[in-house]
Amino acid sequence: MRKVMYLEFERCIGCRACQAACRECGGHDAKERNYVEYVDFFENRQTYPMLCMQCKDPACARVCPANAIQITEEGVVLSAMEEKCIGCRNCTFGCPFGIPKFDFEENKMYKCDMCYDRTQHEIAPMCASVCPSDAIRFIDHDEMMDLRRRRTQMNLIEGKKPSENNKWDYVPEFFGVYSD
Amino acid sequence: MTQFVVKPGVKNLKHDGEKLITTHCCYCGMQCGMHIRVNKKSGKVVGVEPRYDWPVTMGKMCPKGVTAYQTVDHPERIKKPLIKKNGEFVESSWEEALDLIEKNYKKLQAEHGKNALSVFGGVSMTNEKCYLVGKYARVALGTRYVDYNGRFCMSSAAGGFMKTLGIDRGSTLPWPELEHTDCFFMAGTNTAECHPTTIQWLWRARDKGAKMIVADPRETPTARIADVHLDLKAGTDSALANGMLHLLIREGYVDETYVNERCNNYAGLKEAVKLFTPEYTSELTGVAAEKIIKAAHIYGQSPRSVVMFARGVEQQNKGVDNVALYTSMALLRGQIGKFASGVATFTGQGNGQGGREHGQKADALPGYRKIDNPEHVKYVAGVWGIKPEEMPEAGVSAYEMFDEIQNGNIRSMHVICSNPAVSAPNNHYIWDSFKKLDFMVVSDFFLSETAEFADVVLPTTTWAEDEGTTTNLEGRVIRIRKVREPLGESKTDWEIMQLIAERMGKGKFFPYKNVPEIYEEFRLASKGGKADYYGITYDRIEKEDGVFWPCPDEDHPGTPTMFRESFGTPDGKANLPAVLWQEPGEVPTEDYPHTLTTGRVVFHYLSGTQTRRTQFLMEKCPEPYVEMHPELASQYAFMDGDYVYLETRRGNMKVKAKITKAIRKDHVFIPYHWGKELSVNKLTNPSLDPTSRMPEFKVCAVKLRKA
């Protein structure tokens, strides 16, 4: 797969369309596998999305005593295989990002599989398809690298909450379009 | 006609045994493009697929859009007519329900005259249906009392645009141009929550360095990243706008050539804004003077700017003035009618734009014609096949209809596609009015809070069970496709109006066999009006990704950018307003020391009749809450999650506190999507705008205590 998932936290508007969309994906049993959290609602409304990093050497799979978590040839880390999962929850503790979820009724783990039924045909996953703010994107690897470089140039105000009454100091002036 | 519309090279996932039908979301004015997944065998709606190639939204959806399909095959759908017998709803046949309606309507009109009946419409319906509501009231029932829920939503924007620009089209520019704008001045719009799929355009513009100025008492997700957040007091928009205009003139940012050539009353405006120095504006609005100055410099220096606003400025008793003043900011800068610049309001309801143009309004006729204009009446009467003198006179606005009920003039109401028991201000008055009615009919597909008051509930279809057109917030006319057959015995709103018309002996005026027939008549009815749809056909909409009105003939390309050459006023010039400062209907006093403002959350739509029945949305936001600043909370020792008792002069309620610094210290905010004891509209103020007759939902004085 040439395409990658790209997250830009500060674009997130907290609408949780990605979560609603996650439930819509074919193999997802109407359960969302991604997260949207407030950074600190007391302070402001900034939220951020979180989804599986699809690690190259995934901790969840490594700590699985039953070898239930398979990785596809494209590198997508799948949910535990139903017949193998023993419900030990090791994966939920092992993952450094806190991604795998556990279904206590069915006694099995489930996690983001990047909408494998879509992405294997190079169709964007549901979360990235619907995200109204482009906080979650499914883009070419080259485009991602390009965006990464650009981000460091454009240190946007987004995500950096100025303290009370001095929003002033934070108005980004570096675009150079206007001046006082 | 094609069911699945997709451009070459765009990949969509098609599941086995399913087909995709292309349509648009049923909720807000964004009308996001989507494909609905339908099981080929059962015909049931099973899911949604993004429409990546819809040029306005690019496949993006908010959580309401993603879950919209779930209301179609919903277990709570009303599938048979309901008649209230001894206080309980009993399922009945259509025959019985229509008999009852006929009997009561005829009796009431015989006893109290034609105007004893009334119709309360809505704009979450297709143009075809909205058009028919006006005709149904005036021709089938022969009553002057027809109005619609747009009075709670769009009428101030309409009034303000009419006054200033002469034509009310929500946006003077097409949405994809927003990407190229240099500066957004956004007032009273929580875009990220209420129109989330617009955000992609704003963020893209921002990536290129566009500036944002946001005026809102709350630090919304858009205000948070704004270059300047003008944290004004609710209800002080006219002061802020006057202050901005003052600075634009003082600092020499006015495009004098444009203003001289294309605007009237510049001298009057200049005179009126003289008073609004940054210091005086700051005093009225509570915004620091430096911020206002900074905002004026950013806005004034931007080569291409868009002024955008929404209910925050419109739902006030000076909503029309607010709209006129903010629009004037764009006029003084010479922005309207040009690329990537102009003025836009965010239409709240799905077809808020189309629905308000075609005669559901008490004083309006199709094509934005006026009922007090004999020429207009003559034309529309001709299309309808009635005599001009048979056309009833203008009625009264939505909220004032309830006054007429209280006065005993209106004896019966037919509520179509609306839920005023939740969405109208001063709920207690509304509920009491419903109880006073002799006979009440509600058309809905769920048993809404309003339907509970009804004597007869007629089961309608959802948007997915009928076809037609809607007009999105840009003014682009688009196609809604039929996705499945009507559930149970439910019927489309137009069939219902047709059936009642037949019972009232007016069947010959409603001879439609299908929706395209209504559309043909509607096109003709709008022909020559301000909102001219005559040149728009279903085929063209499909081929051209929607067509922008006005489009007077089939060779006309449509009008994506309005007012390129001249404005819609008689002399072709925009009218600049001269408006003095006026307090909101209620200001904080010793007894009611704080300001209450209301609004939406991203998970719910209007009165919540649909979204409160959607599992995902209810999991994310099950109940209303009161948002307040920690400084205010500490004055009453409220902790996050504590129950708070709120009281205004009209009502009270108890909700949980949600504490955040992202709101003014003297304001509290409650979302309005819930009914009965959870309805914040028990508290809101029905102070009406003199022109648009829109109630002041956004400002009232409130007192708090621990519950």
UniProtKB/TrEMBL annotation, chain A:
The keyword Heme does not apply. GO terms for molecular function: 4 iron, 4 sulfur cluster binding; metal ion binding. InterPro entries: 4Fe4S_Fe-S-bd, 4Fe4S_Fe_S_CS, ET_IronSulfur_Cluster-Binding. It holds the Pfam family Fer4_11. Residues 3-33, 43-74, 76-105 form the 4Fe-4S ferredoxin-type domain. Signal peptide: none annotated. Transmembrane segments: none annotated. Keywords: 4Fe-4S, Electron transport, Iron, Iron-sulfur, Metal-binding, Repeat, Transport. PANTHER family: ANAEROBIC DIMETHYL SULFOXIDE REDUCTASE CHAIN B-RELATED, PROTEIN NRFC. This is Fe-S-cluster-containing dehydrogenase component. It comes from Salipaludibacillus aurantiacus.
